[in-house]
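Exercise 7.
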Amino acid sequence: MTPITGVAIFITVWWTVLFAVLPWGVQSHHEAGLNLGDGGDPAAPVNPNMKRKFFTTTWISVLVFLAIWALIHFKVIPLPNLPSGY
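Solution. The predicted structure, written as tokens, is:
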């Protein structure tokens, strides 16, 4: 696996894991019993904890990427030889 392929796989894994992690521990204003008045969305999260979710996403992505790397490195899942350059 080339470094560019590795970065592309990691970014894809990271974004996929992010969308899986985003709903963890979220409580909406409606569920918390808070009234936002006019103009507020009752489904908006009270405290989304985005910084914590980014860190959680990163370490889970590293673990998933290492598993993918091991599968490719030990040729359990071979990558096709693509032509490099035009």
